[in-house]
Each structure stands twice: as structure tokens, then as C-alpha cells.
Amino acid sequence: MDKIKNNALVKKIGFNRLVLCCVLLLMYIVFAILSPTFLSYNRILSALNYSYFLGFLAIGVTFVIATGGIDFSIGPVMFAAALISGHLLTKSGVPLPVCLLVSVLVGVIYGVINGYLVAYCGLPSFITSMASMQMAKGAGSVFTKTQTISWPQAAEASGWYRNLVKFRTAGGVQIPTGLIILVIAMIIFSMILTKTKAGRYILCLGSNKEAVRLSGVNVKKWEMLAFVICGMCAGIAAIFFVGAYTTIQPGLGDTFNNEAIASCVMGGTSMSGGLASIGGSFIGVMIISLLQEGILAMGIQKDWQYVITGVIVLVAVTADIRSRRRKN
Amino acid sequence: MGEVILTMKGIDKSFPGVHALDHVDLEVRKGEVHALMGENGAGKSTLMKVLTGIYSKDEGTITYEGREIEFTNPREAQDAGIVIVHQELNMMGHLTVAQNIFIGREPMKGGLIDDGKMNEEARKLFGMLNIEIDPTEKMSRLTVGKQQMCEIAKAISHDAKVIVFDEPSAALTEAEIEELFKIIRDLRAKEMGIVYISHRMDEIKVITDRVTVMRDGGYVGTLVTAESTKDDIINMMVGRVIYEDPKTQSTVKPGAPVVLKVEHLNAGKMVQDVSFELHKGEILGFSGLMGAGRTETARALFGADPKESGEIYVNGEKVEIKTPMDAVKCGIGYLSEDRKRFGIVTAKTVAENTTMACLEEYMKGIFIDSRRENEVAQKYVDDLKTKTPGVDQLVVNLSGGNQQKVVIAKWLAKNCDILIFDEPTRGIDVGAKSEIYHLMNELVAEGKSIIMISSEMTEILRMSDRIVVMCEGKKTGEIDIAEATQENIMHAATLRK
Amino acid sequence: MMANNVKKGNAFTENPIVRAIGTQKIVVVAVLIILFGFFCIASPAFRQYSTILSIMDYSYYTTLMAIGVTFCLITGGVDLSIGTGIICYGLLGGFLINHKGMPVAVGLLVTLLAALVIGTLNGALVAILELPPFIATLCTMMICRGLGSIATGGLSQNWPPAGSEQGWFRSIFKLDLGTIKLPLGFVWVLLLVILMSVVLNKTKVGRYIIAIGSNKEATRLSGVNVIKYQMSAYIISGFFAGLGAIAYAATFQAIAPGTGAGLELDAIGGAIIGGTSMNGGSGSVAGTLLGVFIMSMLKTGLPFIGLQANWQQIITGLVLIVAVYIDVLKNKKMQ
Predict the structure, then answer these.
(1) 3.40.50.150, 3.40.630.30, 3.40.50.300, 3.40.50.2000: CATH of B258-493
(2) Cβ distance A211 to B357 under 8 Å?
(3) Topology (CATH level 3) of domain A2-327
(4) What is the pLDDT, as a whole number, of residue C221?
(5) What is the pLDDT of residue C315?
(6) Which residues contact B289 (CB under 8 A, 6 or more apart)?
(7) Is the Cβ of C17 closer than 8 Å to some Cβ of chain A?
(8) Considering the entire predicted model, what is its pTM?
(9) Residues A242 and A151 sit within 8 Å (Cβ to Cβ)
(10) Residue A208 to residue B344, Cβ atoms within 8 A
(11) Interface contact A218, partner B, CB < 8 A
(12) Do B94 and C281 touch (CB under 8 A)?
């Protein structure tokens, strides 16, 4: 066992992440045995559909968790962004590129609000983000007057955004463009987290905020930035959500918070801050996406997913706390 | 003075790397106030922790009321009648005075807590002690002095026979100390044994009957207060003259410019009207006893805590320092006494910690240039002789001395000219200590200036060119190294202004 | 002599009557009266008895949840599971009545029992495993949400309607005398507020819960079993979420699976407005009652002055942020 752990390659990737990959593979095999349709390309595409928006949510919340905070508003913010921009697109005839920008902007605004309240006003992030979760749900409902919004289909005018998720060639082959974009985004954000000043300070302040402050670093600015990145990612996630699922209902979205957070903690991001991995979150996202597709494929009630996500977070956080206590 | 109630004999205690108590004796009689004295780190608190069962002893015996005892936790000691009134008070601020005193043993009536009876009992206790405190007042609304009286009342309510006061007067006003002494005299009259830990020489003369002095974890001797002078006690406390090459002459070049001038700095109770100057190439020692306000002065100067008033001049220019960011911009670096909390990010690598304050200099576009970052980290690892397997090692895995070097590297990388070393060698083993000293001397030789806060007399005398002494938030002395002795520093450090 | 030893505030806050009641509560009552007056003047429809009755109706379940969560907040923790919790417990009870032919009494009992189980689980996670309360209860929040739907197969549950043979439980909260409907629930809520005030201030449970929130380590060193009492706060919170579930079932026609998220924020917000601190150690049940009334008043009142009902969520969020910010400032001032 130790031999595997100390292998250079294993160390580079991270033992936990390798285990997660195995879990992912194992899950796929189990589902494939239980439900033969699981091997079809369409099933895989369908599972991937779920991973795009969840992936962006998870990227964003990884930054916030890295600071030692939490953001419970991402799901509803994603919905608010999709509702507001979708309303503009379908009801007010605003051109699509503007709507996509608006979507990201809505996310950024929520990120700025959360970030300011947490970093500058000193409010606890969990209660702040729960409050903004309510405000996001409310804003979506108010803006659309509680109407469901359906984004255009691929064949319709302004439907080209769907190519961001799935590209259908002339020959009818479906290419998961979303996966390509997500992987590129993962790489970019991973570099931001590990290679830039912002990422460095975000990780360090999550680990020991006071020491970083006493080094003459503007910790408030960087802490706020993490929330802004998180909000922005929620805005981007909105585009991928409607690209995959078209319709969106006001007043929902909070279940996705937990799935995104679960993806992060599974991937080795520590709830106490300072330790985060976008790559780990990616594997976590894939596990959750596969899980929901599996539940769907086997005809199990989808509510099991909430229970399982809850248990996953509990186990992951308990394990994290235990291992920290052992180290000290 | 009555019969002996408590005897600690040959108490020995070691921690990994430290011989904390070396066969210490202490004897307390009924109706006696027994002072326990010694410099910071002499082992007074450790001895009391052994007494009350927080630490277990390695050797020696404790005899209490004629029986040999060994407590395993403070609760047992309390039940037996040995209580500590802590310097940091253990109280629940949101509960009332009476509720605090009777926590865990509330009188009940019909399934409900009988607050009336509790207040009555508390009132009786206070009456017995001649203290005026309203038992129904919220604890957090009392002043520190009154809170301490409540702790005493709590101790008495536990039928204490031996009460240990751990630096009780540290946070009290003159009037409050008077009141405290009155209570202590009352307790003495009631035949209790009292251990009084304090640094304050004048208090010792006023209130105590005997003095036991400790030094470096060892027992020095016991005196009868009335028969000894202040100087006798100070001599016992400082005793040894075994430090290596003490400085006898300032090494600052005559006419060296003033790089930092602080005027009338005020920040809360612990920093009152502090003024001093720091010259180029100087090590300015800050001496004083625990709670003298040295760290608070440094933090206020550095912008880590808000200050109320005061002017700061760097290289003759007046500067506004409100946050650590401002201080760092002025070229000031601060090495905290509490490295783990304020100095390093333990979960990060040596390289990451080294460039913490100057990351912008190691960027290539928007990305961190990890090659140059590692180079600079390696350079400081080499320069400072930091023992680490590599610059990618997590700081948590380094020893205390090497962690300290990483913090020093952080400020050197930022090219700070004024460095504040707050207890630079605390928790560092002897070998690493002299390396840090050597390093500090090199730094001032290069033209940097250092403020060194230290509670170790030998360190102060060995390193400083000039010494500022503080006591209770005020500057009580400024001594050139040529005239400095342990005695005159200790005098200034116990001077109440 | 005494006065010199006490840190003083201004003349108003030092007034003995003001201190006995608490400044914040007085302000909250004033705000409540102003809000009520404002809505009454602004909207004739608001002035009607039926409106006031409906404000009351909607306030019961929130108040009950809030009473419970006040205890968690006082320990310095929080319970986020109560929102989806009341839906889950209500669904379970309703399912037994509707699909298993159990009498309503059994349904009520099971509702409470389920609430106690989740409360105990929360307590164990926080007090024994020492998980951060918001994470632990977030997970149970998710689990509750799922379990409620799973148990009922995703079906809405209608508890027996008023007037039907099994509908007697609805008159616990609203007594229909034919000519007039009496908000009986308010009486129960008031009684529970008094009862829990006594528990908080006069029993060991309450005393140690305050002590833990004030200084957990000092409480432990005083020989108090902190695990037991910290846990009991979550059990109390769970139990009151169970009572809240009953009130919810009695007030609304149907309970829909998958809902309930966000209800806990009304309760937590109410408690914080009422002067309970997020930092633990201080709080009052009566204050919580007043705080919840402000929440309910805003939520029911705003549609009467022409704001759509959807603004309610935004208002909840804003009020919550303001309340927490006041709390943060208050704590800063204390130091």
C-alpha cells in the first residue's frame, strides 16, 4: 500500500484522486451491468450534460471553499442568471450574445455582493450566502413574474449557443463540445488557483488569514475576489444548464449547491480552507453526474440523489476533520 | 503563620527537549501569603500546573494536609480544596455573577434552578469577603478587577484551603489592587494558604510573608519577606552570569541616521504614550515583564491593531500606518512572537512563504514565475542555512528555528530595512538560537535596523545596542548597553509609573 | 460605588426597565407597531380580521421552528435542517394517515418522532463528531429533503381537511366557531414561548446551553457534560421542527415533496432580529417570537401594498443580512 502511495506518478496525481478515479470507473461498470443501456453513447452524453453546469459551479465554489468560506447561493444564482437572461432573450428580443453576457454579469453581481459582505463587513459566509440564495430565487421569480422560461431550441433562431454544449455534425454525429470547454476551463481555473497571485493568496488566506494579512497583503480584496469568481462561474454555468436542459423554473436551484459542494469535498478540497484542487473537483463532478444518470437509468426515484449527496458530504467532511486532528 | 498545609518536594518535570522543572521545592503554611517569583519562563506556571493536575510530575512528592496526593485534573484539585485564580479568567460572560460562581452545582427547587437562593449564597460570599458586587449583574459587564473578585468568591465557595493567584494584579488598577490586597489579608486571617505569583517587587513587599524564587526551572531559595530587601530578591531572580559574549559597547556608528521615530504612540491600555527612536544599523532591545505592552506597541506600530494616536517617521518622513500593508510599504517587517498563528502559513511550502510579501516581484505576466520563486527561496535557504529538504517542503515539517528563518527570509525577500523581531528565539533550541543571533548581527552590519522584543535578559544584554524598558504600557527606561545591567533593567521593568 | 465597577452604556440602555426587557426587544416591538400601522393605513384590505388571522396562521410554524433554532444559535451553532425537515416530517405523518390508514394521532406522533430522530442525529454530528454545525445540518437538510419524497414516493400529502372526521387536529390551531374563527394556535405558541423561556433561563439545560455558547471550554472545565447539553440544543430544535411540521400540516391543505428549503431562514432570521446572537451565548425566546412576527408581517403585508409575493424571498434575504450585520457590529462593540 505504502509502496503505491510513494510512487512518483501516484504522488503527482494524488492518491485520493486516483482512488476517486477508480470509484468513478467502478460506478460505471456497476451501472453498465445493472442497466445495459448504460453503454450507449447517448447515455454517456446525457451524463456529461449534467457535468457541464455542475462543473462550472464546482470550479467556482472551490475558490470560495479555498478561502475557508462557503457559498450556498450558486445554484439559485445560476437559475436567476438563466431566468433573467432567458427572459431578455425570449420576451424582450435582446440579441443572444448580450444575453449570454448578462447571464455572466448576474453571477458576477451576486459574487460581488457576497464577497463584499463577507470580506469587508465580516459577516459569516454561510448565512450571507443563504440570504443571497433567497434573494437570487426571488430575483428570478420577480423578473420573470414566476414564469418558466424556455430557451430556444437548436434549430430555432438564436439557438447556436447549444453548440457550446453539443455539436451535431452534418453527418449526425454528436460531439460533446461542452466537455471540451469544461476541460479547458478546468485547466485555466486550475492555473489561476495554482499559478497566479490571486490563487496563491486565496489559498494562503484560507490556511492562515492573519499571517497573510501581517505580510502586508490586502486579504479583503483577495477574499472578495474568490466570491466574485464563484459568482461568475455560476453565471457561466447558467449557459450550460439551459444549453442542456432548455427550460428553467423560478424558485429552484438550491439542490445544485450541495452537489457542487459535494464534488469539491470529494475531490480533496478541505472545508477548513487552504487546500483545494480543481482537478479533484472535476472528478467529483463526474462522479455526481454519473450517479444521477445511473439513478435515472435504473428508474430509481431521483430524490435518492439528495440523500446520497448529503451522506457523501458528511463522510468527506468527517474524514477531513479527523485527518487534520491526527496531524496536529 | 500556622502549620504547613502543602509541601511540594523535589518536583521534576521534563518536556521533549526542555527540563521545565528541576527538583523544585515549595512549602505553604496556613495563614501565609507565599510569593512565587521568577523571570518569564522560570517555571512558576508549570509548577502550579503540576500542583493542580494539569501536568503530571516525573519525580517528587506533593503532600497536602498530611497526605501524599496526586491529582489528575483541575476538578479533583478543586474538590480537594486547591484552586487557581487564573490570569486569564475562565468565565461565561453572558451569565450573571452568581450563575458563574455556581456553574455545575446550581441549587435546585422543584426541578428548576433556584436563582434566588443562588444570588443569596453569592451575596453571603461577597459579604464574607467584604466585596460589593451585585450577583445578578452580567459577568461581561464587570471590570476585570471585579471579575477576578468573582473568581476568588468562586474559589472560596469550593471550600478552598489553598488558593493560587496567578499574576492577579496584571490587569488591575491601583484601587482594585488595594481591594484585592484587603481580601487576601482577610483570607490569610481565615487561615488559608495563599500562593501569590507576581513580578511586582513592591507588591511582594507589601502583601507576602515569604518568597520562593525560581530560575530556569530550578529552585533558588526561600526568603522571609520582612527580613529581605528588594535587591536580595532581584539578585536571586537574575543570579547567573553565564551568557556568552555580552555586548559591552554599542556597535552603532556614531551619527547613524534615525530610520524610525515613534512619538506618543497610544493604543489601548497596553500602549500609553510610547516614544522612541531607532538608528540605522542598531538593535534596539525592548525589555519588560510579561504584559508590559511590548508586543502591543509593535503591533500598533506595524498597523496590525488600530492605534489611537501617535506619529511615526520613517527616514525622517512622517508616514501614515493604518494597516500592515502600509507598514510593509514603508519597509517595516514584523516577526511575530506567535509564529504559527501570525508568522507562517504552515500548510504551504517554504518557497510560498518566502515570497508571501513580495509576490509581485516574482511574476511573469499574470503567472507566478515558480522558477525564480524557487531560486530566491533557495538563495535564502542557503544564506540563512535553513535546514529543509527543499524549498517545496511544507513549513509545518520544519523545526521552530527553521520556521523562524523562513519568516526572516520573507522579510528579507521584501527587502525590509526595519525589522521587528518579537521574541525571535522563543521555542527554538540552543544551537538554532545562536544562529539567529548571528544572523541578526549580520543584518545590522548590512545596514538594516532591528527592534528586538525579548523576555530573556541574556538575549537583551547580548544583542541590544540600546534597551527600551516597558512596564504596564508605559516606557519606564531607556538604557545604553554600556550602562545596562540585569539589575537596572529589572528595576525599570518593575517600576510602576 | 457600584456604578464605578460596571461598564456603562447610555442613559436609555442603562434604564433598569429597558435593561430588564432588552434594548433590542423594545426596538423590535416599536418596529413591529410601526410596520403594522403602516400596512393598516396603506391598505384597507390589510386591516381586516381575516388578514390578521392569516398572518397568525402563517406565523405558527415559523415561530415554532424559530423557538427551537434559538437554542442552537445560543450554543453558537445553527440548524439548517429544520426547513426541509418540517416538510419531511409532515410528509411522513401524512403518508401514514393517507396511505396506511393510521389515525391522525399516530400521524402526529410519527411526525414528532421523526423530528426527534433528525434532531438527535444533528446533535450527535455536532457535539460528538464535532463537525461544523452549518455543514452537518446542511447535510441533514439534504437528507430530509430526499427522505420525505422517497417515503411518499414523490406524492403530495393532504392531511385530513377541517370538518372531516379526522380533521380535528386543525382546530388545535384555528378554532372555527361558525361565526368567528379563533387563532387558538397563537395561545399555544405563547404558552410554548413561556415554557421555553423558563427552560432557557431556569433549568440546567438552558443554563448550560447559554454557558456553552458563552465559553465552551470554561463550561467544560466547570465539570459540565458539554456534549450532552450541546446535543440537547439540537434535539430541542428537532422537536420544535416537529411541532412546526404539525402546525404546517394544520395550516396548509397539502404538503409537497421537495419544498421547504428556505423556510429555515425565516426562523433563523426571526431569532436574530429578536436579539439572539450568531456568536452564541445570548438570546431570548420572547425576542425570537417578536422577530418572527416582523418577518411574517413583512411577508404578508408587502403584497397588500402592491408588491408581488415573489419579493418575499428577496425581503427575507435582505432582512437576514441586515440582522446579521447588526449582530456583527454589536459583537464588535462588545470587544
Answers:
(1) 3.40.50.300
(2) no
(3) ABC transporter involved in vitamin B12 uptake, BtuC (1.10.3470)
(4) 78
(5) 86
(6) B39, B40, B199, B455, B471, B493, B494
(7) no
(8) 0.87
(9) yes
(10) yes
(11) yes
(12) yes
